[in-house]
Amino acid sequence: MIRLEKLSREFQVGNQVVHALDEVDLEIKENEYISIMGVSGSGKSTLLNILGLLDTPTSGDYILSGINTSKMDDDEMAGIRSTKIGFIFQSFHLIPRLTAFENVEMPMILSGINPTERKMKASSALEKVGLTDRSDHKPEQLSGGQRQRAAIARSIVMEPDVLLADEPTGNLDTTSGKEVVKLIEELNLSGLTLIMVTHDREMGDRSNRLIELRDGKIINDQSNN
Amino acid sequence: MLLIATSIGVMAVILLTAVGEGARDYITGEFRSLGTNLLIVIPGRNETSGGGGPIDLAGLSPRPLTIEDAQSLSQIDDIRRIAPVVMGEAPAEYDGLERSAPIIGTTPEFLSIRQWEMESGSFLPGVSMRYSPPVCAIGKEIKEELFGDDSALGEWMRLGDRRCRVAGVIAEEGRAVGIDVQKIVIIPVALGTALFNRDSLFRIIVDVENSSRMDQTRQSILSIIKRRHQDKEDITVIKQDTVLQSFDNIFNVLTMALGSIASISLFVAGILIMNVMLVAVSQRQAEIGLLKAIGAKNKQINNLFVVEAIMLSGSGAIMGLIFGHTITYILKISFPTFNFLPPMWASYVSLFVALISGVMFGLLPARRAARLDPVEALSGNK
């Protein structure tokens, strides 16, 4: 469902051009569970941002569900992000002024879903992540693990095809980290394509497929089974 | 801070326009109290247009307008009443108490032209342009000051080096020709010219029978006085209406000007809004990035910030409206003689300008927010 063809992303740093991604070819099938690993600066975050249409490649093509995204404008990309892609961040990125429930509602508000449906979907998403009893808490009243679960609820509430996770356990202690990983692995088992950036080898080994990047190139692409 | 800036702006608009409107109302009310069928004859040519000619050399003082001139006007049929007026100030003294008082010398017609009421006694009885028995009418305040609670009627008081008997007390309050009626002393016109040692009248007020005959009457007055003044047109005849009209116009423009000056402060407030919004945008970069990541279109983010700017300026404006109206209300109570009238349009315009400046100055930060690169915004360190 995802195909990258000779995809490059260059950054201008001073008068030097940095190749964050250097002619990457990659094919990802539906319902895969992929870990992307690499030292910092290897291009793994850039790859994730491009997969999430937050960033656009300098050259090459990114084909998502048969659609070439390189010719899309901002609004079209926003539409895809809204309906097809769910994001989970290392630092959760919940809006501090809103309750967990309202945070989960946010993507639906932006895409104009009516309030009744919104409330229903938000509660079912919160139930899925086991946060029903905390739904009217503000982020500051939640523990790190709970915050990340709220963020996961937000990422799946629009029923996306792909879940992109950028070091989802990076800010969590081991116990809540394990819970979160378990949760997103369950989501993967229920049909979501899961792409996770991590620098934790143990987490990388749990995935079905492990991709390693260095200097913007894929240096290792292995299946764990 | 921001709300205060906007509300001060709106408040300023309302207060300044209220003062302007109040002044206009005051002045026009002043003139309107004279009635609108009036022609005012003033010595000297004030107009530069028409007539005149090379005879009007600079430095030549105008020929005085005399009581005889006023008398001669009675031959015009359309004139109902004539009131010659001479004005000055002299010490008024009674029983050792002395006050400096504004003095108007005129005839009994003055009372009906001004539509004044008497509190007690009568207004200049037996007085005409020819006869000036030593009588006077006084305002309520001067009566209070000189006579206290005692009746003033029939008492002799001294005015400068003359004496006159108080024949009546004027009930009127308020102001006339810039003078507080309550402080005024009114005496026969001939007594006035003698008291002030002046041969010229201050003006002649003419009440015209029929308002459609105003212009003809004006011409008749001009030609009669011209004949009397050796064929020189050295007086000015003003129509009360025209004066009123031009004052009205002047004050309207003044109010508008005051209003627009105050509106500038609204734009200053707008710039403050922009500043705050820009800070808000950079503080909330991560949130903006997140909204983009979960599918917000640029337009939605743009609208979000514009709406916020409008809400800020709108609530500031509403605060300003409340403050402005409260303060004008307080002023109204404290200074009842001066009518503070915040015009309706000032409220609308200031609200409108506040919102417009909110939108205008909200647009730039909003656009900046919408154009943020989501990756950089999410990392939140730029």
Short description:
The complex is a heterodimer of chains A (about 220) and B (about 375). Chain A has about 220 residues and is of the alpha/beta class. Chain A has helices spanning about 45-50, 75-85, 100-110, 115-130, 145-155, 175-190, 200-205, and strands spanning about 1-15, 15-30, 35, 60-65, 65-70, 85-90, 160-165, 195, 210-215, 215-225.
SSE layout:
The complex is a heterodimer of chains A (225) and B (382).
Chain A: E1 2-13, E2 16-28, E3 33-37, H1 44-51, E4 59-64, E5 67-68, H2 74-84, E6 85-88, H3 100-110, H4 115-128, H5 144-156, E7 162-166, H6 174-189, E8 193-197, H7 201-206, E9 209-214, E10 217-223
Parallel strand pairs in A: 3-8, 3-9, 6-7, 7-8
Antiparallel strand pairs in A: 1-2, 1-4, 4-5, 9-10
Chain B: H1 2-32, E1 38-43, H2 67-72, E2 79-94, E3 97-106, H3 109-114, E4 118-121, E5 135-138, H4 140-147, E6 156-159, E7 162-170, E8 175-176, E9 179-180, E10 185-188, H5 189-195, E11 203-208, H6 214-228, E12 235-239, H7 240-283, H8 285-293, H9 298-334, H10 344-371, H11 374-379
Parallel strand pairs in B: 3-10, 5-7
Antiparallel strand pairs in B: 1-11, 1-12, 2-3, 2-6, 2-11, 4-7, 5-10, 6-7, 8-9
Helix pairs in contact in B: 1-7, 1-9, 1-10, 7-9, 7-10, 9-10
What features would you describe in this structure?
The complex is a heterodimer of chains A (225) and B (382). With 225 residues, chain A is of the alpha/beta class. Helices cover 35% and strands 29% of the residues of chain A. In chain A, helix 3 (100-110) packs parallel to helix 5 (144-156). Chain B has 382 residues and is of the alpha+beta class. Chain B folds into two domains: 2-28 and 250-379, no CATH class; 64-231, no CATH class. Chain B is 52% helix and 19% strand. Chain B is built from eleven helices and twelve strands. In chain B, strands 2-3-10-5-7-6 form a six-stranded mixed beta barrel. The longest helix of chain B is centred in the last third of the chain and has 44 residues, at 240-283. Chain B is elongated.
